[in-house]
Design brief:
single chain; MetI-like fold; elongated; mainly alpha; 282 residues
């Protein structure tokens, strides 16, 4: 009953957070666009009309045509599917590995803690994109390898969050009581400690998806991510950068799509943080 009341209070608090609600609306909208891309896109995103290349926005093509005469609107719509998929896959992988490492470091302590956190500190000493590029150089180009690279670079953030949560939670009275009656480490971690540490992880995951989408677009812009003719927003910016002064619509709409999506996830992450972090309760 107490958990149900707490859930209702959290929902009510989230509804009062206008930025969080706005972020949720944007995220849901972009996700629906990606999921329904097959039905929403008016044209095949790969179909070319070379004689109409760089055609400006019109009633027939609301976002105009790109460098080789492909419909920009259709490509932006399909790009939502790719970008959201990359962001979610990246954060899911990073959260899973980071959580496991953070749990081991925080609960075991000693040399386990020193070894894992030293490795995380070394990874954090590199700029995220530089570390991701190094991984891609080893694995090769492509969106799948971009997911692995960005997930690898994001692991330290989640590991450190989880470690701090475990260090705080394992000293609480109910955890000490569970240890006193013989509850094993595995059950203690998964059934008692982990649920108490989820709040900052969820907020960071929402923020992390936005960051991953932005970084994946950056890598595709550099030619390391999605390869032509894939309708990925960063690749679209890269392919159209030469026409930015002649046909600005070629890069305007993919850029706006990236900005809107990242903004939505950032606002959602802030809203989740305010809702789930008990220290922010009034």
């Amino acid at each position: 009953m107490n958990e149900l009341l707490s859930l209702r209070e959290n929902k009510s608090q989230f509804r009062r957070n206008k930025r969080g609600v706005a972020g949720l609306v944007i995220v849901v909208f972009v996700c629906l666009v990606g999921l329904l891309a097959t039905w929403l896109a008016p044209y095949d995103p790969l179909e070319q009309h070379l004689l109409q290349r760089r055609q400006p926005p019109s009633l027939e093509h609301p976002m105009g045509l790109d460098e080789v005469g492909r419909d920009n609107l259709s490509r932006v719509i399909y790009g939502a599917r790719l970008s959201i998929g990359v962001g979610v896959a990246c954060v899911t992988l990073a959260t899973t590995v980071g959580t496991l490492l953070g749990m081991i470091a925080g609960y075991k302590g000693g040399w386990w803690d020193s070894l894992i956190m030293s490795a995380m500190d070394v990874m954090l000493s590199f700029p995220t994109l530089l570390l991701a590029i190094a991984v891609i150089v080893v694995l090769g180009r492509g969106l799948t390898n971009v997911v692995y690279a960005l997930a690898f670079a994001a692991i330290p953030t989640f590991a450190r969050l989880m470690r701090v949560g475990v260090l705080v939670t394992k000293e609480k009275d109910y955890i000490l009581a569970a240890q006193a009656i013989g509850v094993g480490p595995s059950r203690l971690l998964w059934r008692h400690i982990l649920p108490d540490c989820l709040a900052p992880l969820l907020a960071q995951a929402a923020l992390g998806i936005g960051t991953a989408i932005l970084e994946a677009a950056g890598l595709s812009f550099l030619g390391l991510g999605a390869q032509p003719p894939a309708p990925e927003w960063g690749a679209m910016l890269s392919q159209g950068r030469g026409a930015v002064f002649v046909a600005p619509h070629v890069v305007l709409f993919p850029g706006l799509a990236i900005m809107l999506t990242v903004l939505g996830f950032n606002l959602l992450g802030d809203g989740l943080r305010d809702m789930l972090d008990p220290r922010l309760e009034s």
